[in-house]
Amino acid sequence: MDNAVDRKNLSRELREMAEAGIGGVEITPIYGVKGEDERCIEFLSPEFTEILEFTIDETEKLGMGVDLPPGSGWRCGAPFVPEEKGLWNLNVTHNEEDGSYSLQALKNRDKVKRPAKGGEGWAIDTFNKEITEWYLGEFWKRLGLEPGKLRCFFHDSFEYTGDYTTDFLNEFKNRRGYDLEDYLYVFAGDCEDDDLIARIKSDYRETLSDLVLSSFIQPMTAWANEHGSLNRNQAHGSPGNILDLYAACDIPETEFFRTIRPGDHQIFIQKFASSAAHVGGKKLVSSESFTWLNEHWTVTPTDMIRATNRFFLAGINHMFFHGTCYSPDDAPWPGWLFYASTQLNNRNPLWPELPGLFKYIERTQSILQEAEPVTDLLVYWPYHDVAASDGPIFKHLGVGAQPEWFYAQPVAELSERLLQSGFTFDYISDEQLSLCTISGDKILTPGGIEYQAVVIPETSYMPVQTLLHLSQLSSEGAIVVFDDELPKSVPGNFHWRIREEQLNTLKSTFSEDGIGIATEILQHKNTEPEKELAQNGFFHLKMKLQNDDVYLVFNLQVKPKDTWVKLGTSAQNYVFMDPMTGKITRASKVGDQIRIQLNPEQIIFVRCTNSDLKVPEHHYLETGLKKHELKGRWKLEFRDGGPVYPGNVDLVNLQSWTKIGDQETRRFAGTARYSLEFDWDGPSSAWLDLGKVLDCAAIKLNGKDFGTCYGPEFSALVDNLQQGKNKLIVEVTNVAANRIRDLDRRGVEWRRFEDINFVNIDYQPFDASGWDIRDAGLLGPVQFYFSID
C-alpha cells in the first residue's frame, strides 16, 4: 500500500511466508493507508528501486522468486503517459438532415486503477504497438533494475475500457478487407439485417482481438524476455480470443472469482489457460486463486480446498494467492488489508494451520509440473461465434460465474458431456489448430503434445482455412468429429458468400460417420474414455511420469466414494500418493480393478507401474466397523488469537465455544485446545472422526501428530492407541468473522485505506456489525471406527 514498506518488516513478512511454505511473491503497489504518508515511497523513484532490490535480495536468501507488474495497481499507465497515448472510444453519429454517418474517436478517460503514489496517470492505448513498446521502454528505464533480477513480469485481467485506436480504420481494412466506414449505420443501430449485424460485429471484435494480441501481449512478452524475465498474463477480460492471448505469454494465468458451490466442478473457463499451456508446450500455468471465495473473514480452509481442487482439475500447476497485503508489525489488528482477497496473511487466525494446506498444494504441483499431460481430445473453440453474438459491441470475455461468452455456446454443453463421459480435453483455437500436424494416428500440437482426436462443437461460423486444415488432417488419418452437424457458414462480411461456397465444398470431404453425437462417435472410433471412473462419479487427470502412467483422481461430490474401477492403463502395481498426508501406499487390486475410496474433496495420485515398489498396503475404511463415541470431560483452553483470551472451561457436552457462557468467547478468533483422557481396550489402529469442526483441526494422540484436517471431512487414521489410558488433543482454529464483527459493533475504526477503502463481496461499504455470531470449535460427535480381529 503506497509502497509504505521498510527493511525490517519486509524481512519479517518474507521470512514468515517462506517458513509457511510460500515459494515467491508478486509485488503490486496499490493505493495507500490514511495517515501513513511518512512511510510512503513514491512508485518508480530511486528509493522504490532501492527497496525493490533489497526485497529481491531477501527473497533470494530464502529461495523465493519475485514477480512485478509493469505498472502500479491495474492497467499499464503512469504519470509520464501523455493523454494522446491513452485509450480511445468509437463514436458514430447520424446526421438526420442528409442521412450520413460519421465516425469520431473520443478520448477514453481510463486511468491507472487503484494506483500507489507516483503510479497515477493515463492508461495506455493497448491497441497500438508503438505506444506499448514506448511505455514498456520508459517503465524499464525508470525501474532501474539489472536484467534477470525479476522472475516474471505480470499483467492482471484486462480491465481497460477503450474500444478504438487512432489507426483502427487502416488496421480494420488491412485485416478484414473492406472499409468499416461503409457500415457505420450498423453501429448507429440503423440496420435490421441480423446476419449483417453479426458479421460486422464479428469483424470489428476480431480486429480488436488481433490488436490486443499483436500490439499488447506479444510485445510485452518479447520485452519481458529481452530483460531476462518471463511474462505471466491473465488473458481473461480481454475483448479478444483468449486462447491465443493466453498462448502469447510464458505463463498463462486464470482465476476463480466468487464462491464455489459444494458438488460443482466449475472448471471449463479455467481450462482455457491450461489448454493454451498444454497445446503450446508450456510447463507452468498459474491461477489467481482465492479472490472473493466468500465474504471477508468467512473463508474457511474447506472453501480453499474446494477451489484448490478445481484448479488442479482444470490443469493449473502454479498457484498464487492474490491480495496478501503487506502490513507493518505495529499496525493494530487486523492490519493493512486489500479489499478483494481471502486475507491469507499472518493476521488471519488460520495462518498457523495453513502450512499443511500449502504442503498439499506443493506436493500436487510438484508432480503436475514434472509430469507430461496425457489428454484425450482437442475441442475446437468457435471464437467466431462469440465474436458474432448479440450484446454490446465491446465484448469482454470475463471469468465471472457462468459467463455467457462460453455458457451460451454449444461448446459448453459438449464440454459437460465429454467430462461426464470420462474424456479429458483441451480447447484449441483456429490459429493453434492450423499449426497441428499428424504423428502416426495422433494429432500433434505445436508444443509436442499428442491427442487422439479433435472434436468440433456445433458451430455457426468457421473460417475456410480451418475447415480445410481439418480436412487435411482427416485425410492423413486423424480422427475429426463434428458434434451434431458441420459448420454453417464463414465469419465476417468480406466476400462471405464466395467463402461460404468454398466452405460448403469442403464439407463434402468429411465422412458421415464423423458427424453426430460426439461421445458416441468417439467410442466407435476406439477413443476410449475412462468409463469406470466417470460412471462412479470420479473426475481425473492423466499424465506420464518417468515412463509410468499417473492418474490424479478427484471426488468433488458431497458424499464419500468407495468402489472398484478399471483404469485405462494395465499395470502390475497401482500405487497411491496422498498429497494431503504425503503417504505412499499400494492399492488393493483384484484382476484389472483397483479399489478407490475418497472422501468429499479428497484427491489421490494413482501411479500405474510394473516396478515392484516396497510400499505398505493402503488402509481402507471398511463398512460394518464397530463404533465408539468418546465421552467424558473435555478440557478447553484458549491459546493463540484474540482480542483477549477467554477463561478455560471444562465441557461434558461438545458445543460451539460461542455458546458456553463466557462473553469473550463470542468474539474470540484463534486456536483453542480440546483435550480428553479416555480408557481404551480396543485395537491400536482406528479411524478417528471428529464430526463437525469449525473451522479446521489439528490432531494429536498420545503425543503423536496426525496433521491438520481442513474439511469438509475431519478424520484421520490413527495407529498408536494403547490399552488403558490415552490422551487426545484437538486444536481447533476458527475464522476471524466474530472478531471483526466485534470491532464494528464497538465502532473501532480499522478501515482507513485510500481509494476504494474496504468493501464487501458485493462492492458495498463493509460492515460486519449486523452479522450473526458464527459457531466455532469442536462440535463432534468424536468417534473411533475399528474392526475386531
Question: Any overview of this molecule?
Answer:
The chain is α/β, with parallel strands linked by helices and 789 residues long. Among the domains are: 377-524, no CATH class; 532-609, Sandwich (Immunoglobulin-like), CATH 2.60.40; 626-735 and 774-786, Jelly Rolls (Sandwich), CATH 2.60.120.260. It has 19 helices and 40 strands. It has a seven-stranded parallel sheet with strand order 1-2-7-8-9-10-11. It has a six-stranded antiparallel sheet with strand order 12-21-22-28-24-25, with helices on one face. α3 packs parallel to α6. The longest helix is centred in the first third of the chain and has 33 residues, at 194-226. The protein is globular and about 95 Å long. The relative contact order is 0.08. The mean pLDDT is 95.
Care to give the gist of this entry?
The protein is α/β, with parallel strands linked by helices and 789 residues long.
Fold blueprint:
Elements: H1 7-20, E1 24-26, H2 46-61, E2 65-68, E3 77-78, E4 88-94, E5 101-107, E6 122-123, H3 129-143, E7 152-155, H4 168-176, H5 184-187, H6 194-226, E8 230-233, H7 242-247, E9 251-255, H8 271-280, E10 286-288, H9 301-313, E11 318-320, H10 354-370, E12 372-373, E13 377-380, H11 383-387, H12 404-407, H13 410-421, E14 425-428, H14 430-434, E15 437-439, E16 442-444, E17 450-451, E18 453-456, H15 464-475, E19 479-483, H16 496-507, E20 515-516, H17 518-524, H18 531-535, E21 539-545, E22 548-555, E23 561-566, E24 573-577, E25 584-586, E26 589-590, E27 593-598, E28 602-609, E29 626-629, E30 634-642, E31 649-651, E32 669-680, E33 686-689, E34 692-694, E35 696-701, E36 704-709, E37 715-718, E38 724-733, H19 737-745, E39 777-780, E40 783-786
Parallel strand pairs: 1-2, 2-7, 7-8, 8-9, 9-10, 10-11, 13-14, 13-18, 18-19, 19-20
Antiparallel strand pairs: 3-6, 4-5, 12-21, 15-16, 16-17, 21-22, 22-28, 23-27, 24-25, 24-28, 26-27, 29-40, 30-31, 30-32, 32-38, 33-37, 33-40, 34-39, 35-36, 35-38
